[in-house]
Amino acid sequence: KINANKIATAHTMDDQAETVLMRLLRGSGVTGLRGIPPKRPIDNCLVIRPLIRIWKRDLMDYLKENNLNFRLDSSNLDINILRNRLRLKLLPLIKKGYNPNISEVLVNIAENLNDVFEYMEEESRKAFWDSRMKANDGEVAVSLSKLLKRDIAIQKEIVRMAIRELKGNLNRITYNHWQDID
Q1: Which of the residues 8, 74, 119, 176 has an alpha carbon 20 to 30 A from that of 182?
Q2: Could you tell me where the DSSP H helices lie in 5-149?
Q3: With the C-alpha atoms ordered 27, 33, 39, 44, is the resulting torsion angle positive or negative?
Q4: Confidence tier at 42 by pLDDT (50, 70, 90)
């Protein structure tokens, strides 16, 4: 309504840890295990997450110390929602019985995989444009001989880039699709 070109969310490192665990359980690869990016363009808008490097407990302490109010979304307590079950049931179980620092571990995994992803994405982009032969409405052609000369990880990214160019996104593209293409 106001034609904003940026939207700020209050995602914290706790949300990052939950996201990585949720995606791990769903079987995500490097791209998904990167977690929540600090900023991400969506259409003509930039979603920014200025609190993504802050733990929720630190944020809550800050709000309390400064007598600032906050909103609690009651749907966050609904354990029928996977993220909430992870937050309210599974993470406390892992912290108590396996690793009290699991949230930090999950955030570190996201950061490390983000570094790997950024390198891979740059190399894959170069390889995609080198392998791409043509693109028409409803068609993207990639040179099979050039594709097969690449490392398997780059091959997968080239295919993902071709799908994204063709389809506009990677929604509902799973590992099974990659296996079918392979």
Answers
A1: 119
A2: 13-26, 30-33, 56-65, 82-85, 91-97, 102-131, 144-148
A3: negative
A4: confident
Amino acid at 53: R
Q: Whole-prediction pTM value?
A: 0.83
DSSP state letters, 51-63: TTTS-HHHHHHHH
Nearest to 159 by CA among 174, 147, 172, 168: 147
How many Cβ atoms are within 10 Å of 70's Cβ, its own excluded? 9
The position carrying tokens 């309210």 is: 88
Determine contact, residues 53/104, Cβ cutoff 8 Å: no
Q: Over 90: is that where the pLDDT of 106 sits?
A: yes
CA-closest candidate to residue 173, choices 165, 163, 44: 163
Q: Which two tokens stand for residue 50?
A: 């200025």
Distance from chain centroid for Cα 71: 25
- Residue holding tokens 């599974």? 90
